[in-house]
Amino acid sequence: LCIRETGKTIPDALDELREAVDFLRYYAARAEEEFSGPVPLPGPTGEQNSMTLNGRGIFACISPWNFPLAIFTGQVSAALAAGNTVLAKPAEQTPLTALYLGNLLNEAG
Predict the structure, then answer these.
(1) How many domains, in total, are found in the chain?
(2) Between helices 95-108 and 70-81, what is the axis angle to 10°?
(3) Which of these, 13, 52, 79, 105, could form a disulfide with 59 (CB 3.0-4.6 Å)?
């Protein structure tokens, strides 16, 4: 699909796919580390302080036409892993790649 929409060669499309997978793995690991529970904070003796990280709201992710899978996946996965809502705007030249990515992310949960 990426080859058809962008005109990439097979090796270039595979490189982009690998980069997209790397983004997904990286942000999934970061989400587990950062959002697993409250983070204890230092405070005066006898006082307990902690910080809980939460999403910030709605993020707009705009896909470039030349790397519609890798860069878009990086933007979207970072925002979703942090607990945010994503408003996705795919490049006009690559709407099917963005649609397919959105379907995969919905299926993954």
Answers:
(1) 1
(2) 30
(3) 79
Please give the single-letter amino acid code of residue 21. Answer: V
Q: What are the φ/ψ torsions at residue 40 (nearest 5 degrees)?
A: -70, 140
Q: 69, 97 in Cβ contact below 8 A?
A: yes
User: Comparing C-alpha atoms, which of 91, 88, 81 is closest to residue 31?
Assistant: 81
Q: What is residue 19's predicted lDDT score, i.e. its pLDDT?
A: 95
CATH code of the domain covering residue 44: 3.40.605.10
C-beta separation of 16 from 69 below 8 A:
yes
Cα Rg for the chain, rounded, in angstroms?
Answer: 18
Asked whether the predicted pLDDT for residue 109 surpasses 90, the reply is no
The 10s digit of each residue's pLDDT in 34-57 is 888 888 888 888 888 998 888 899
Please give the sequence-ordered ranges of beta strands (E in DSSP) within 20-94, or none if there are none: 39-41, 49-51, 58-62, 85-89
